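chain below, 805 aa
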Amino acid sequence: MIRLPMKAGISAGAMAAMLACPAVAAAQDTATTAAGTSNVIIVTARNKEESLQDVPLAITAFGEEQIDRLGLQELDDVARFTPGFSFEDFSGGFAIPVIRGQAQTRVTALETNVSTFYDGIYIPRSWAVDIGTTNLQRVEIVKGPQSARYGRNAFAGAINYVPRKAVMDGDISGKIEGTAGIDERFDLGGFLNVSLNDRMAVFASVNTSEYDGSWENAHPFADLAIDGPSTTGNVGGWDNTSVYLSAVVEPVDGLIFDFSYNYSDNSNEARASRYIGEASGGILDPGQITATDNGLRAITNCGAVRNGNRPFICGNFPDPAETTLNDPRGFATQAETDIFRASVAYEFSDGLTLSYVFGLIDGTVDIATSGEPDPINCGTLVTAFGGLCNFQVTPVGDISYDSHELRLTFDSGAISGAIGGFYSTGEDNNTFTSVNIAPITSAADFFPFNGNTAPGTPGALNILLGDERIETEATAIFGELLWTSGDGMTRFGVEGRYSETEITSTDNRRALGATNPLSATFKEFTPRITVERDLNQDVLGYVTVARGAKAGGFNATARNAADRVFDPETNWTYEAGLKGTLADGRVVFNAAVYYTDWTDIQINSADFDPANPTNPNVPTITRNLGNAELYGIELSANVLVTDQISIDATFSHTEGTYADGTFDSRFSRGAPGATVPCDDIVCNANGDISGNEIERSTPTQASGGIQWEGDISSNASAFIRADASWQAAFFADAANLGVIPERFLMNGSAGVTFNDTISVRLWARNLLDKKYTSNAFAVLLPFGNTYGQFYGERRSAGVTASVAF
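prediction:
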């Protein structure tokens, strides 16, 4: 079996450095701050404003200035500078944020192991979680189980998007900002805050962004205009618009009403990618591939020979070429989302506040991705239909969820805490269609996808694979208590949430689907215990124990009734950390070590056919089939070397392996009369993945930055910044065969501000223009495997100018 080098020695060395020299070893909760500014970062991860260094949680936070200067546009940018966090979106439909190596095995799951919130409102589907950074005051990545505080599916942690809010400052202020860059990048937006007194304020912003993408598309019809969503010109572009409104009213002292509304219209092109199909025509060795293959056919090179082919990729995925090859008829997320939030809070007295929050999120989505190894000639993926081009058109549908939370918070000095209740209902409609159409031979072959069909297209073959309505009703009660010692140096906290989540799934494809839906109620208690101690006035130490839970679900097509419901997956995480500031606040450091016991992992598995137990030609369902153990370290630091120069760094390492007795049956399924794909040499023929590393998440990552900032005249200031990030190689599959190589990237930015009003900033992302594989997944089927290989963005650069008033 192929193995990546384990980094236990690195982890142990970093631990020793952290304990021996906390002034320079820093950790998981850091956020970069500019030289000459305060190192104090305010977060709201515990439903109140407090300094990041006072929170006994593992948090990474980025404010407005850090978002701009680090060039953070999407969650994959945030992940580069967040220890213990990674993110890839696989062309938008199945976004997968991963915290501390707890990658979900099911790429197609619409719910992830990490909960995402916008202004405190839960975003229930993976296609909506990567909202970008426009108009944000802050992004917070909260690591470790957060189910006790946030509830549903905060299994490994949570992402908090904190938007700008109306400010009651008795003034009128605003900003207009524009960006122009290479590859037809153009942004325009601005905001206005109106507050004529200290009792009411209104805030509004509008932003648009257009981009052609950084990868040249080698498809011969890439530049033809298509009526409808498509990938025209380069690959990876977008055309996005957002509108945000906020209002705050305090009619009397202590009573605050807060309203906000966010509308986003996102039209994203396909990500640059390559699909590698299991070889056809008896190619057993990459050396046998000729120029006529154009490098598009499989370079599968290991495993048992079946039908004259090797089924797996072992070792590094092929390096990206200078261009990508994408069918321009495919596209990524086309979504419109509305998020409305209304809250009221009344402070009865010092330390006693009652609050109510209402949330509503509505959205529609349409995605059509091509998984063809040869998007020009087609037919290597779905050979049974005579050379048609295959598109996986999913998710297509809509969501509508509302939520209500009532919370009473109290603080009597020695004892503080909160109690409350939560209720939410929602409906999710989703279809999954395999659309198969002829290759493009002329502009006449272009057509608009319409939902999940290709109407009026000659030779089109549409196969409805899924048409499901999911209804959710979630109820929870929660509470927390914090005891503080008389000297204020020691605190002991307990949190707990009891939740009942009823999920009803209706399969609209079946005759009995509407009258016999699947329904189950999942009940969970998720506690957290925290002990924290101020080692001195500048250093905090803490220990936490917490349980995380992710909801179960349904297998509507399962042959056995017992397999139609799969259970929640859970974990217990044990964590110890240090946080501190030194040298009069010029040094900020954070550090943590953790151990996670992950149980009942939801793993894709072959359905069991009672009538023919050895039949390999069965669909894939989800079962709770395994456990895993993870442990790691996270470090980060920020140092103001001088009043003008700052440096910052992060490091994390996670060891995550499947426990004994964990099996993935996809590696033990062969077509009728053929050998199973694993040969007991590169992988186990019985699907045993015990001891293997958890896939699709880098075990080790690091970043560093240096910045100079200072006055260049009496009315002007300037800055210049350089950043670098690195992540180690990692596996694409649970058998630990295919490897995503390591990568090293650099960003740069520089800017000048005049009279605190006019600013101009030059920036470059992926400054060295590295061509790299960002992530990959494997679709393992008895009749042939397919690998999806996704590329990171190429170099982008531009200038951003703004006028504040």
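Helices lie at 8-20, 64-69, 75-80, 147-150. The radius of gyration is 26 Å.
thats it, cya
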